[in-house]
Amino acid sequence: MLLSLDGTLVVQVINFGIFYLILNALFVAPTRKSRMERYERIRKIEGETETLVKQARELRAQTAAYLAAAYREADARISRADAEAGRQAGEIVAAAHAQAKAKAEEARRIVEGEIAALRTARGRGVEELAAAMLGKALGEGR
Length: 142
Description:
Helix content: over 70%
Number of helices: 1
Strand content: under 5%
Order of helices and strands: H
Number of strands: 0
Oligomer: single chain
Largest sheet: none
Radius of gyration: 59 Å
């Protein structure tokens, strides 16, 4: 018969049990333990990664909000500066216009004074010329 149920079968079963316990104690249990530890580390890293991804999204949103606020503030400052520049330009133009008007008025007065002086001088010159011509006509100048 091929298989006999004698004492060797019992010894073989006991040997297999001892071998399984030794194999389990030396290789399977440590491997299982390291696999479980590795699995737990991976889960922990995945959890941390998810947390970091959420924080990164929040930071991106905050950055976008800060940038939008900064752009709004910059636009407001530019608008105020533009308005101030326009006001100052208006003041400069008004001052230049007033100065030009004052110079034109001064030039007009000078010209009027010169015209009056020329009229007075012309009147004297005409009188002298008329007197000289009258004197020649009357023969006094000989």
